[in-house]
Amino acid sequence: SSDLNCGGTGLNIGAHGIVLDCKGHSITGPGTGTGIDINNFNSITIKNCTISDYATGIGDVSATSDYIFIDHVDVSGDGSGVGIELSYFENSNITNSIARNRDRGFKSVGIGTQGSGNTYIANNDFSNATEYGIYFEGRWVSNAVFINNNVSYAGQWGIYSAISNVGSGYYHVFSGNDFTNSTNGLRLFKI
């Protein structure tokens, strides 16, 4: 029912099946840490939040999570850090969100036997990234859809994405993404 000013991590998700609707309120941090830490839980929805002054706006970097839904979230920054960072996640949607002025707007890494896939990333503004608008890499990444994302003015790549070379039937879909004035537009490679 009100804005939060937090030191360290803003909010820690503590169970499966949590819906966090900030209803337009903000979570403001000390300039370090993570605004919302998903903590390896599944079936998590985060929506209608503004998260500022954190190195990472929303993060889950150490474990496997499925069914993560992020919608209408603003995690814009000051030119550093990562807006949304999810590793080893599947069956998830990141939509209608903003992560401008970061090193990386959205970052996902899936390595080892865990992967990142079956993901829908659409209608987001990840512009003005000093490095990558969207960074999606790892040995087991597959089946991602990137539609109508603004990744303009990226310092290195608008979208930098790997796709698994293990097995068959893996795909990525790219449509309607804005790469205007990015140093490089799209890099897609098999690993």
Number of strands: 18
* SSE ordering: EEEEEEEEEEEEEEEEEE
Q: Return the average pLDDT rounded to an integer.
A: 87
Shape: globular
Low-confidence stretches: none
* CA distance, first residue to last residue: 46 Å
Assembly of the depicted chains? single chain
SS content category: mainly beta
Helix content: under 10%
> What is the count of helical runs?
0
Biggest β-sheet description: 10 strands, parallel
Beta-strand content estimate: over 45%
Q: What is the radius of gyration?
A: 15 Å
Write the layout of secondary structure elements.
Blueprint: E1 4-5, E2 11-12, E3 19-21, E4 26-28, E5 34-37, E6 44-52, E7 56-60, E8 65-66, E9 68-74, E10 82-87, E11 89-95, E12 104-110, E13 116-122, E14 132-138, E15 141-147, E16 157-163, E17 172-175, E18 186-190
Parallel strand pairs: 1-4, 2-5, 3-6, 4-6, 5-7, 6-9, 7-10, 8-11, 9-11, 10-12, 11-13, 12-14, 13-15, 14-16, 15-17, 16-18
Write a concise keyword list for the protein shown above.
mainly beta; 8-stranded parallel beta sheet; 0% helix; globular; 191 residues
